[in-house]
Structure formats: C-alpha cells, structure tokens
Task: structure prediction
Amino acid sequence: MDAAVKKVRVPDFAAMKARGERITMLTAYDYTMAKILDKAGVDALLVGDSLGNVQLGYDNTLPVTLEDMIHHTQAVSRACKRALVVADMPFLSYGVDINAAVYNAGRLIKEGGADAVKIEGAGSLITQAIARMVEIGIPVVGHLGLTPQSIHRMGGYRVQAKTPEGVEKLLADAAQLQEAGIFALTLEGIPAQPAAQVTASLRIPTIGIGAGAACDGQVLVCYDALGMVDDLHPKFVKQFGQIGQAITEAVQAFCREVKDGTFPGPEHTYGEYVSPAKSDHS
Result:
C-alpha cells in the first residue's frame, strides 16, 4: 500500500463518531469502480448483496450466493488502498446455524479479502453468531430497519419503525446488536426521528440509507448516486452525477463513428507495414 495513503480501519469508525465526523460509504462490486471510488476518498466500500439487482439482474437480493459475494469482494478488495471493505453476508449464509454463519463470515474475510462483514436483522441466533465472530476477530456491521433479505415477510420494500411499538423494537434490537459486538449499524428505510433516537442511544456509529440526516454516516448504492439507474428512484436517493447519460452519449458516438468510417482515424492506426526486402534471386 502507498505509504502516503492512510487505510481506514475498524477503530476509526468509533473515533469518527466521537469527533463528530460523518462517515461516507458507497457500494462497489468490481475492481474498476472500486478503484475510482477509493481514489475519490470514500471512507468505506460495501460489497452489497444488492449486486443481485444491479449486477446480476435479479428482482431481489435473495438469489445471491456466498460464492457470488466472495468473487465480487475479491475484486473490490484488490482495488482498495484506503477504504474499509465491508461484505454483505447473503441470504441463508447466516441465521440458520451459528457455526455455519461464523465459517461463512470467515470465508468473506479470508478468501474475499473483506475487512468486515455485514449482517441483517437481530434475534438470539444472530446475536450469538455475531458475538462468536467478534470473539475470533471478524468485525461485524449490523443492519436494521428495512432489511431487503426479509422482503417477503415485510410485504415489499416498506418503511419500518413507523409505530411506537416498531420504534421500541428498533431501539431494543440496536442495543442487543451493540452488546453482541458490532462496530457500526446500518439503518435503512426508517423515519428520521427513530433513526435519530437510535443514533443517540448507541456508542457505535450509525450509517443511514433512507434514515435521515441524524445518522453518523450515509451509504448509497453507487449506481444510484452516480445516476446510472433510470428505472428506480427511491425517495432517499440523490443523483450526484449523470454518468449513465454520459455513457449513453459516448456509446452512441462510438457507434456513429464506426458506422460512418471516421473511427479509427490515422491517429489510432499503427504505421505502414514494411514488406521484406526482395531476394537477389527473385
């Protein structure tokens, strides 16, 4: 690693919360994009199981496998010199058996090169698995609120913690996860006030996505933030660029110039072929 680049580490998250510095996180799924985002200075890159939607074309995240996650995490981790790399644990890679969950998390660290893993939900089995992961040196980020792997139980992508009972459960689950040893908590798809309550109640930082401005940091899907997705616009998404339109225009220009014969031009072509000298016996 370049000596001039300071790698973001797990303890830096707590230090950033303590000094009031907001944490920046974006998703990444491949080497080239991860290299660009890392160079731009983002604090953390999440290899999200959202790759099922934006990379693999699934309707939701449920079909994503552990092998998919390891493959994409390897690519992202190779690119990162600064950002902390967090890998999502996909559906059924945890929550069924504690030993299997710990082993699968270990694979994302050992084979994938992740610095940490992220797990959706709470409950006894999950918190026991998290505690065991942390015990053997696997850093864990929690995830509460709208948990995409529970899309069928929730009846779709619906805002969570909208009732006093829902907020009470959110606070209890957050405290339980913190006690289990997570070093950060993602809050997705919840009103701003409950998110602020959770953030104030925890020692660890919260990272919001559709959870208001009171969280200690923010995460977005990189394709959303860059304006590369034009068929879905959740309320919480802000497009910080129009890269999708720029790509479309560039590809149209390529097609046009190939069709009309202006590409490749002389400046894109190697020099003339020099034929061998003729033999004296020719």
User: Anything to note?
Assistant: Strands lie at 23-27, 44-47, 84-88, 116-120, 140-145, 184-188, 206-209, 217-220. Residues 10-225 form a domain with the TIM Barrel fold (CATH 3.20.20.60). The mean pLDDT is 94.
